[in-house]
Amino acid sequence: MHRNKDLHSFLLGKARELTEEWYESLDKSDPSxxxxxxxxxxxxxxxxxxxxFHLHLCEVFLKEETEFLEDFQSxxxxxxxxxxxxxxxxxxxxxxxxxxxxxxLDYINEFVALHKGEFNDETINSWNRxxxxxxxxxxxxxxxxxxxxxxxxxxxxxxxxxxxxxxxxSLTDEIALLPLVGxxxxxxxxxxxxxxxxxxxxxxxxxxxxxxxxxxMIDTMVAHQIFQLVKALRMIGVKATLSxxxxxxxxxxxxxxxxxxxxxxxxxxxxxxxxxxxxxxxIF
Length: 284
Fold this sequence. Notes:
By secondary structure, the chain is of the alpha/beta class. A five-stranded mixed beta sheet has the order 1-2-3-4-5, with helices on both faces. α2 packs across α3, α6 packs antiparallel against α7 and α8 runs parallel beside α9.
């Protein structure tokens, strides 16, 4: 055990040197990700993160495996959810893990050379195996956490895109417009329903024109979602009308047996707005 302590002390003493060597040897030619940054604050943070990694990893020679991994977890989570690292292709991050792993194997050789003849092959091999196993466990945990936080980021971005794809545009204090563009799937329809109701309540509008000019196709599911939205709007006191149902969509609707008789419809957006402005005695 005292041999492990000696190696731990040696590597701990080399931690800052390991960080500087690692950063100087970084391939900064690829502009993607944190490793190519020229921002001094980002560089300093990156070096500190690497240095903290060494402080944790050296403990593998003193702690039981479970304790070692538990103590390492906070560092892993911090890096995995770091915005700079999330914007870095994961294969770049893994490449640096493996480069640091090589550093450790080299420094173990250096430690052995400084104590020539003191350690047998079995001891040296056991140290190398400890390092390789530690890196395997840390990398596996990092990838798991990285994927978790990346999925969270992607979901948040997707939700934002979906929300922005169904904007409520206030035309007057009483009239608003919901222009729909692109395909409407179940997830988008759900977000559209929630966002539209919320914004209509927030703005206090009385009339909402739902324009379908930019919707390339309509099927039973889309029609059902639109009907549900119109009904929900009615329940909160907002009258909804539809505009921009193109001829081919109208034909498809008839073929599918879809019935729009309970929903006011207009040929185009101009016609719908003219009618609504006329109702409110406004000039269009």
